[in-house]
Amino acid sequence: MLVAIIIIIILGVISGYFIIPTSSLEYLDLISTISLSILLLGVGIDIGRNKEVIADLKRLGFKIMLVPTLIAIGSIAGAILFGILIKLPVNESSAIAAGFGWYSLSAVILTKTYSTDIGALAFLSNVFRELFALVLIPLLAKIGTKLTVIAPGGATTMDTTLPLITKSVNDAEIAIIAFVSGAVLSAFVPILVPLLI
Amino acid sequence: MGLIVISLIMGILISYKGLLAENLYSFTDKLTLVGLFLLLFTMGVKIGGDPEVVSNLKTLGFKAIVLSLGSVLGSVILLFLFEFKFKRED
Questions:
Q1: Is B14 helix (H, G, I), strand (E, B) or coil?
Q2: What distance in Å separates the CA atoms of residue A39 and residue B37, rounded to the nearest whole number?
Q3: Count of domains observed in chain A
Q4: For the segment A68-89, what is each residue's pLDDT rounded down to a tens digit?
Q5: What is the predicted pLDDT for the residue at A88?
Q6: DSSP assignment, residue A149?
Q7: Interface test with A, best of B16, B26, B43 (most A CBs within 10 A)
Q8: Do the Cβ atoms of B31 and A114 come closer than 8 Å?
Q9: Which of B20, B39, B52 is nearest residue A36 as measured by Cβ atoms?
Q10: Are B48 and A13 within 8 A, CB to CB?
Q11: Fewer CB atoms < 10 Å away: N or C end of chain B?
């Protein structure tokens, strides 16, 4: 998926650089507005469909909500602090962090509603987050932590990093918590990113 | 911003209320993917058409690593403290 996404962006960059005249940017804006509503409608349908997650939440108790909430707070606070070091305004660093590793959605929302360079930064930063997660998950499991293994993946613990988590920590309960946490964080992304920017 | 919220809430309501037939979901999945690909393409066009962003790609890469490190460390530290406290209570 990441490969397909990168190829499409590169195709866009090449066409933007060489082919598409800046005068057609108006059409581009219209296309991206329509695409964004379609995309978010689809994201919403996905969220509403996750009755399984809602059932898991009820069964495990809403205490489990602490896991994605703490991951959200830690991700945003950490990015704000590190953002200050590179002189990034708080609204930008916090909104980028609220992508929680879901690079495609956070990047397109920020490109569309805020600015191209912050959209590009959100894309790169959230791709790196997933890469760091792939390295850290087995490491954190090795030093004997369990819940903490869920933290670096952010929203990706419901899909792309879930197999690695279940392989690294041999505990069915952790797998379910990771899935629920990833689903909740994924639902936070389209709400928090526009809110924070 | 308004558009994002309205589209999202509409989507959640549609599927939560079960307004869509089960076999339509593979279609909405494809539609979402088309929307995403179109947006990623237009994002690329905007990046390519903006000389400033192109010349800034290197610094953007560095900033991206700093931000993602901040996010990863922040969330790991908080969850580690939570897990530690949890264990002691057990």
A1: helix
A2: 9
A3: 1
A4: 999 999 999 999 999 999 999 9
A5: 96
A6: G
A7: B43
A8: no
A9: B39
A10: yes
A11: C
